[in-house]
Amino acid sequence: MSKCKTERLDRLLSNLGYGSRKDVAHWIKEGLITVDDQPAKSASRKVEADSVRIEGKPLDHPDGLTLIYHKATGSVCSHKETGLLIYADFPERWSDRKPPLSSVGRLDKETSGLLILTDDGHLNHHLTSPKHHVSKTYAVKLDSPLSGSEQDVFASGRLMLEGDEKPCLPAEMTVINENEATLVLHEGRYHQVRRMFAAVGNRVTQLARIRIGALTLEQTGLEAGEYRTVTPDALINMISPR
Ligand code: URA
Predict the structure, then answer these.
(1) I want to staple 65 with a disulfide (CB 3.0 to 4.6 A). Which of 19, 53, 61, 153 is the partner?
(2) Catalytic residue list contains 108
């Protein structure tokens, strides 16, 4: 939603997750909504989002919503699945927004770490498109000690994962100790880190995404389950500083 765009009041509020068009008509009757400081009279009136107040409060992110988020283990990156969803960490209203707030790629249920969410389709595309080369760094804990060959195998660009048609792009692994490493990926395939280590005979026991491009989880200061709203421009600048 761009600034100064006008939209029907009921449509605007229902797309921001406040309630149904019927709810909006009801709130107008109750005098809860103002437009330019005057009580709203008609749900069909075209308005600018910045001029609307509900119970005196400005609208919740009417120009779009983008977040950086520290996903905890145990929650699922989905709107549809049952069980604990990442969306439980955000205000309930955000789950009813249109366009929907979606994660930029996904982290597995048992993976924690840095995740971006946005309702901006262009930003989502920008961050996932191979053209923009946004690397992702993972901290990995392993069941068995590293054998010593993993760095070369992962960097080779020849590692084939079961069911895939192309080998993995070269990835950089750094050893922390015999059961821990970091791995920088330049693409995002389904369960990629777990499958890469499985392909060299090991098993990932703990996985966290600690960096997206230049933005580290540590520098965000976010604890597991916490998020912060950002503008798309600020986010792009954090990920790929000019
Ligand atoms: N690789 C995985 O195996 N899982 C993730 O969640 C992310 C990368």
Answers:
(1) 61
(2) yes
* Average pLDDT per 10 consecutive residues for the chain, totaling 242 residues: 78 97 96 97 97 98 97 96 96 97 97 98 92 94 98 98 96 98 96 98 98 98 98 96 80
Please give the CATH number for the structural domain made up of 66-130+215-239. 3.30.70.580
Q: Are 176 and 140 in contact (CB under 8 A)?
A: no
Tokens of 173: 């692994």
Q: Of all atoms in ligand 1, which is nearest to the CA of residue 195?
A: 3
Can you say whether the dihedral through the CA atoms of 47, 50, 56, 57 is positive or negative?
A: positive
The CB of 189 under 6 Å from ligand 1? The reply is no
Which residue out of 36, 89, 108, 119 is catalytically annotated? 108
Per-position b or e across 176-198, b if 16+ CB within 10 A of its CB:
eeebebbbebeeeeeebbbbbbe
**Domain 6-58, what fold?**
3.10.290
Q: What are phi and psi of 219, to 5 degrees?
A: -70, -20
Q: What's the whole-model pTM score?
A: 0.94
Choose which residue among 73, 194, 200, 212 to substitute to test ligand 1 binding: the one with the highest number of ligand atoms within 8 A of its C-beta.
194
CATH code 3.30.70.580 region(s) in the chain: 66-130+215-239
